[in-house]
Design a protein that fits this description.
By secondary structure, the chain is mostly helical. It is built from seven helices and no strands. Helix 3 packs parallel to helix 5. The protein is globular and about 50 Å long. About 7% of the residues have low confidence.
Length: 236
């Protein structure tokens, strides 16, 4: 079993990579795909604005609260803070994670219906974000008193909600293709909000040059991955 210190480093690196992938997927691929459709541009911008506000409200009500920190991760809060917080919110984390994964499944389905290559890139963006989130949630659940087995099983069950959302989204949107551009814009608003509101503030806590350089490089790697995959898709 990995130590918490090693998991903390993995989360930090994946957070930086996720920022690059999430922002480039939304701004360089998903949003252009939506705006190239026949949908009204003003309505799409309104959807983007509404999506950002919706994610803000979801986070306000602790439905989309991501937990990427825990005891011993180097953040400065009193001993026992995370265990206390997780003990109160362990089950809420699972509910929020399940809802989030269900929504991710719908978004991936919409992306695949718009363009199979966009679906692959959107799936990559979600996976890149889900890895640090799931590691963080797993450790928070351990702090909340869950056994390793229970934490793993519940996390796995929550992850399966993405499959249910994907199947539902595919069969629904296949019959309502006019909705696809709006779902793509809503997905982009979620990617942008998560990157700017949740992930980048975590990176700002590590302000030294030694910690900042790897962050910048990993963001660039994330952008490069999306550009590489996009370029290959266009070449084919």
């Amino acid at each position: 079993m990995f130590s918490f210190t090693l998991l903390s480093r993995m989360v930090e690196r994946m957070v930086s990579l996720s920022v690059g992938i999430l922002l480039s997927t939304s701004l360089l691929h998903a949003l252009p795909e939506a705006f190239e459709s026949q949908a009204d541009a003003r309505t799409l911008f309104a959807t983007l604005l509404g999506g950002l506000f919706a994610f803000f409200l979801l986070e306000k009500f602790a439905i989309l609260r991501h937990s990427h920190h825990y005891e011993g991760d180097g953040h400065h809060h009193e001993h026992g803070h995370d265990k206390h917080e997780a003990g109160k919110a362990g089950w809420m984390i699972l509910v929020g994670d399940g809802l989030h994964n269900f929504t991710d499944g719908i978004l991936i389905a919409a992306a695949f219906l718009a363009d199979p290559n966009l679906g692959l890139i959107t799936g990559l963006a979600i996976i890149a974000h889900e890895i640090p989130q799931e590691i963080g949630d797993f450790i928070v659940l351990l702090n909340a008193g869950f056994t390793r087995t229970r934490a793993y099983v519940y996390n796995l069950l929550c992850s399966l909600m993405a499959v249910i959302g994907g199947l539902l989204g595919y069969y629904t949107l296949e019959r309502a293709t006019d909705w696809i551009p709006y779902v793509l814009v809503f997905a982009s608003s979620g990617f942008i909000y998560i990157a700017v509101s949740d992930l980048m503030p975590q990176m700002q806590r590590r302000a030294t040059l030694r910690e900042t350089i790897p962050q910048i490089l990993l963001i660039m790697v994330g952008v490069a991955i999306v550009l590489f995959l996009t370029g290959r898709a266009h070449n084919h």
